[in-house]
Write a structure and sequence with these properties.
By secondary structure, the chain is mostly helical. It is built from five helices and no strands.
Length: about 160
């Protein structure tokens, strides 16, 4: 399972790099078109908006599984003691609950977007599929929070 997990993470990372590269290329092309030719790329705002959501939410399960969210290590010497193990499981449960709530809210938004036929402004891209994807990845991140395990001490510059 770990080999499959590693390959899946590697695939997602490559896709994220491709999406980010595409967004940079689109933005570059749009700026050059605006400045030099007075002709922006039609729908660049819509495409950038969708790519940004895909990049952020695609990385969310990976980030959560690696316990790589922004954290402050001010109290690590105290909180990483074995007697605080239950505390870390409670925190993991709270993180999973919040991510689960986000997944639920996006799932509700899918039905709302379909019922009102919500689309993007310039290109008319239906938003329901995007909300479904955001709900799926938030749910995967919630699962990853539950299975992430206990934190480990961060290395500091003085450790190097």
């Amino acid at each position: 399972m770990t080999a499959l997990n590693a390959r899946l993470q590697q695939l997602v990372q490559v896709l994220l790099m491709g999406f980010l590269g595409g967004m940079v290329l689109l933005t570059f092309t749009d700026v050059i078109g605006r400045r030099l030719f007075n002709t922006p790329v039609f729908g660049a705002h819509d495409i950038t908006e969708h790519l940004m959501a895909v990049i952020v939410f695609s990385g969310l399960p990976l980030l959560t599984a690696r316990r790589a969210h922004l954290s402050i290590d001010l109290f690590d010497s105290w909180l990483l003691r074995p007697q605080w193990r239950v505390w870390h499981y409670i925190v993991n449960g709270l993180i999973a609950s919040v991510l689960g709530l986000i997944a639920y809210e996006f799932a509700v938004s899918v039905g709302e977007a379909e019922s009102m036929r919500e689309v993007s402004q310039a290109l008319g891209i239906p938003r329901a599929w995007m909300y479904a994807y955001l709900s799926l990845t938030s749910g995967l991140a919630a699962f990853a929070a539950l299975t992430a395990g206990l934190p480990v001490a961060h290395s500091t510059e003085s450790d190097l």
